[in-house]
């Protein structure tokens, strides 16, 4: 049994009010993979990089992540994204998006990945998400799809096709409103459920996350932070932590889903503490356990009457 | 022992995407008073109305609220506010603000109100809040102040003076940022604590509320609602429910404060279900108990490892 993540590996150049970076390692697969690796020990990646990615793959291998599904294109250049965050850290401008080898990404599934029980289809062209899923010989126990407004604008039919095949969708609140054409998130959740996913997670950044399923709803807080250093990858770290927890407990029900949302939120809260994947690279199990206790303290109340 | 609320009584005319009202009863004192009356049975109001308010005072008296501190100005006209909510229900345009008798509001404290242990200084000119507090012969056990950005812009020195004298401040997130000049709510809370209030409640509407005190933080969810019919008064209903709960349990600590935030959130969630104070007028204890259980289900998770 394994947890497989399909998603981009990238170089990112990031400007925030706290500083800026040259090209550092990024991409959904890095953030999700690192986050998942702290909760589950058989994590495998499917991605593509250019020859320039070089030794950076060791960031993943040091966390015992299987990278045999990461294709290296000889002479190719790795996907590059550059962005600048505004003072509120909630909005950003994209300065550059050079798809490079990602433009022709054709996901290949090593035979050793066919034991996949937990699949994360990270934010990518819906067509590639469909191809990756079709190439698995048996349907995973749980499929999580992450996507964004860009694909709702440019590839809505493919997105609707993959939505029919997944169990969990993670998007943010404005994307939920766009996809459903409903302002109320309760109504949005009901409409999105009709599109396929049994579980919907609406990510609200500093306002936490909502989990909807079959008339039930759970509200997870976000940890109030003194400093958000770099929001890049927080949503991917959330998805990795979420699915890593579920793979570990290996039982799908609403109660475990709620806990998984808390673990995802915890991993996202670490991610934003440093630039890029730096914080996730150095995380310890003790720090994670402590952060989970912070989430318990943050949200627990006891009304006795 | 009593719970005293100082705040405006008003006529409101409201337009929302769901409809519009002629002049209906409104004002912070109505919403806060009604909400508090379901949780504590000795609620007293200090306010001012014009002769045109007439029998509307019975809305409060039917809930056994003491209105002997509501001054009626012969020949005067009651404060009138009119607003139009946008489709997102989070932003609104003010169409009219006719202060009328509120312009010369000089709060008078009946002798029978001098048993006040719990005081809510509803959203008003800070100068009037100071006067009301000064006219109480003994300091209440707990003083809650509600205010808004308008007073930060127009009466900051008076606001800072009253902040030094109160225990709890309730404001929204953008107001917390404005008052503290800090974007991070954690840093904002630390700065505002230095201004006086031991407890800070940051109201975030559909995103819930945060309670800060002495390095502790609690995040209360908002109940996801299919329809928000009219947001007017939600913040006042929150404050009334919050203080009503604390008066009932009559012990001030962080644990009770957390519960009080949940009760306040529950009363706010009822308030928005109909126009004006209609929903609060017809509420039952059974409905409140059921709503509290919804908040428990919404936020409870059990991580055993």
TrEMBL record, chains A, B:
GO terms for cellular component: cytosol. Keywords: Kinase, Transferase. GO terms for molecular function: kinase activity. It holds the Pfam family PfkB. InterPro entries: Carboh/pur_kinase_PfkB_CS, PfkB_dom, Ribokinase-like. The keyword ATP-binding does not apply. Residues 21-279 form the Carbohydrate kinase PfkB domain. This is Sugar kinase.
């Amino acid at each position: 049994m394994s947890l497989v993540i399909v998603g981009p590996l990238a170089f990112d150049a990031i400007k925030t009010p706290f500083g800026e970076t040259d090209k550092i390692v990024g991409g959904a697969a890095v953030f999700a993979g690192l986050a998942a690796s702290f909760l589950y020990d058989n994590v495998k990646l499917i991605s593509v990089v250019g020859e320039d990615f070089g030794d950076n793959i060791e960031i993943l291998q040091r966390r015992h992540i299987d990278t045999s599904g990461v294709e290296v294109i000889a002479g190719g250049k790795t996907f590059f994204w550059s962005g600048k965050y505004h003072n509120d850290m909630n909005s950003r401008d994209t300065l550059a998006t050079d798809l490079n080898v990602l433009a022709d990404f054709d996901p290949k599934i090593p035979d050793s990945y066919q034991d996949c029980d937990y699949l994360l289809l990270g934010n990518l062209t819906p067509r590639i998400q469909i191809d990756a899923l079709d190439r698995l010989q048996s349907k995973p126990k749980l499929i999580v799809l992450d996507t964004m407004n860009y694909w709702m604008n440019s590839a809505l039919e493919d997105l609707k096709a993959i939505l029919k095949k997944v169990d969990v969708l993670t998007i943010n609140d404005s994307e939920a409103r766009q996809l459903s054409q409903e302002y109320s998130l309760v109504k949005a959740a009901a409409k999105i459920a009709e599109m396929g996913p049994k579980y919907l997670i609406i990510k609200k950044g500093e306002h936490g996350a909502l989990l909807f399923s079959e008339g039930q709803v759970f509200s997870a807080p976000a940890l109030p932070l003194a400093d958000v250093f770099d929001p890049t990858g927080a949503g991917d770290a959330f998805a990795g932590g979420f699915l890593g927890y579920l793979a570990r407990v290996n039982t799908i029900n609403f109660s475990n889903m709620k806990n998984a949302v808390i673990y995802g939120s915890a991993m996202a809260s670490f991610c934003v503490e440093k630039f890029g994947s730096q914080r996730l690279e150095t995380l310890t199990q003790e720090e994670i356990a402590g952060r989970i206790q912070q989430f318990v303290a943050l949200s627990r109340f006891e009304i006795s009457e």
